[in-house]
Specification:
The structure is a single chain. This protein is an all-alpha fold. Helix 1 packs antiparallel against helix 2.
């Protein structure tokens, strides 16, 4: 992935990833309060994936800050 200063493509990708992570967290909350079998396990997996996405975004933001100075 790259950052395109003209189109802001990187910002758009980060925005979509943040929305995706938020959606995963929403469904994790839903499963957490569900009585379905394996609901807590599904909630954990969704939260874990959301965390991975958020860490990916932070890593990309940090690496852009390191290379632009």
């Amino acid at each position: 992935m790259y950052y395109d200063k003209v189109t802001g493509k990187d910002d758009e990708i980060k925005k979509n990833l943040r929305a995706y992570a938020g959606s995963l967290e929403h469904w994790a909350d839903w499963f957490r309060y569900s009585d379905e079998d394996y609901a807590s396990e599904l909630a954990y997996l969704l939260e874990d994936k959301a965390h991975d996405i958020r860490m990916y975004i932070l890593k990309k933001e940090f690496s852009h800050g390191q290379t632009s100075t």
